[in-house]
Specification:
six-stranded mixed β-sheet, alpha/beta, 435 residues, Rossmann fold
Length: 435
């Protein structure tokens, strides 16, 4: 299959080579999107092939990303691929969360089961493969946590040198520890995510370092596999809604692209509606879409949220995200710190657990069902983007009543589960448990 890059800007649509180091269109500065010649694609045969690969012990077949490689064939051969057996994340039923969210049923697609504990692995394996294909020796990213952990692991596994730039003091130690453990050279910069991204783009061009943030179109290709695997797990039955958190908006861009391609190829018969949920203190995309695009997109200079994975004030993928939301008749919602914290605790009560940003999905669902946007009986899949152990300090502070919003206001633990200090006394403990 032939592969190429296309400018996403509808006024440009320049066609570009896939073997160049490009992040934006050189003609207009627009975002780029990978395109393929799918002429020989046959849906029924591919579904059978993908199922058969589940029984295959070959590394690429064991990957929940590269198992579906015919959907993103940008590599002439798979030699550059580095796989840690990413993907293969479960669909989990959550009756308590469904009831809390106002639904009869709710399914979580839990990306926290990935090798480094987040959905970033689906995209990073593809981005690192392209870096190796291009002969790059160094890669870099700006990160609030999950991207840095993922890039460090995949770059190191592939023999590349990873360089990570993070906002000083604005990253969970659980995530930072991963990056350090995986050997990344880490720089803590006194600036916010968006300012650091501008800095790193200058450094990448100056030093010949390959950038692996979600502006990289091959990251988006890998992340498409999340929704492809989701449809495969559901025997290609399309849900009414897919709900996911919104930070840099790479995931909604990837999901929408993957869904459109699957429908065009005959893998699915309709598009689900997409719902993106942002944190209230970091919600530039919500504010833009609430105004129905009548005013220009405005970045948020000082985004604030404890859900650090979506603490991004100037999401680079917003034009793609807008297109995918409008194409699927989707919606954008936002949730407060209190709503996210309580939703996270409810997910935990289901025996599932997730990082704070993931819980924005359930918080948003609760608001959307209350508003009548999502009906009680509709088929909903919510994406949990990260593992529960990504931010353990947040969990402890919530359950012990010590968690505070960025403005210092207390977050009331409606579902708190504070540990109890007891004496070394069986009678007294029996009395406490009995009561």
């Amino acid at each position: 299959m032939n592969s190429w890059l296309v400018c996403f800007n509808p006024a440009c649509r320049a066609r570009l080579g896939i073997d160049e180091v490009l992040y934006n269109c050189p003609h207009c500065g627009g975002l780029l999107e990978a395109r393929y010649d799918f002429t020989a694609f046959e849906a029924t045969a591919m579904k059978r092939t993908w199922r058969e690969r589940r029984m295959d012990n070959a590394p690429l077949s064991q990957s929940g990303v590269w198992r579906y490689r015919e959907m993103f064939p940008f590599l002439a051969d798979t030699g550059p691929v580095v796989t840690l057996r990413e993907g293969n994340t479960p669909l989990l039923q959550a009756p308590r969360a469904a009831a809390y969210g106002g639904l009869a049923n709710l399914t979580f697609k839990h990306q926290g089961f990935n090798p480094t504990g987040s959905f970033k692995d689906n995209g990073m394996t593809a981005g690192v493969a392209q870096a190796r294909k291009l002969g790059m020796s160094r890669v870099a990213c700006v990160s609030t946590g999950n991207t840095s952990a993922s890039m460090a692991a995949y770059a190191s596994a592939g023999g590349l040198d990873p360089y990570i730039f993070i906002p000083n003091g604005n990253i969970s130690y659980g995530k930072l520890a991963q990056a350090l453990e995986y050997g990344a050279k880490t720089f803590q910069v006194d600036a916010n995510f968006d300012q650091i991204l501008a800095l790193v783009r200058v450094l990448a061009e100056r030093l010949g370092i390959y950038l692996l943030n979600s502006i990289n179109p091959f990251r988006i290709e890998g992340q498409k596999s999340i929704v492809i695997e989701m449809m495969d797990q559901r025997d290609w039955a399309v849900p009414d809604w897919i709900v996911l958190p919104g930070g840099n908006l790479g995931n909604v861009s990837a999901f929408g692209k993957g869904l459109r391609e699957m429908k065009a190829l005959g893998l699915i018969d309709k598009l689900p509606r997409l719902a993106v949920v942002q944190a209230a203190g970091s919600s530039p995309f919500y504010e833009y879409m609430a105004e129905k695009g009548l005013t220009p997109f405005r970045a948020q200079e000082h985004p604030e949220t404890l859900a650090t994975a979506i603490k991004i004030g100037d999401p680079v993928s917003w034009p793609k995200a807008q297109f995918e939301i409008e194409t699927t008749n989707g919606v954008v919602e936002r949730a407060t710190e209190q709503e996210i914290a309580d939703a996270k605790a409810v997910i935990g009560k289901c025996g599932i657990g997730c990082e704070p940003a993931s819980a924005a999905t359930l918080a948003g669902i609760r608001k959307l069902t209350a508003a009548g946007v999502i009906a009680h009986g509709e088929d909903v899949v919510a994406v949990l983007t990260g593992n529960v152990l990504k931010d353990p300090d947040y969990i402890y502070r919530y359950h012990t009543g010590q968690l505070q919003a960025p403005d210092g206001s207390p977050i009331h633990p409606a579902f708190g589960n504070k540990p109890v200090t007891v004496p070394n006394d069986a009678d007294r403990i029996t009395e406490l448990i009995g009561s």
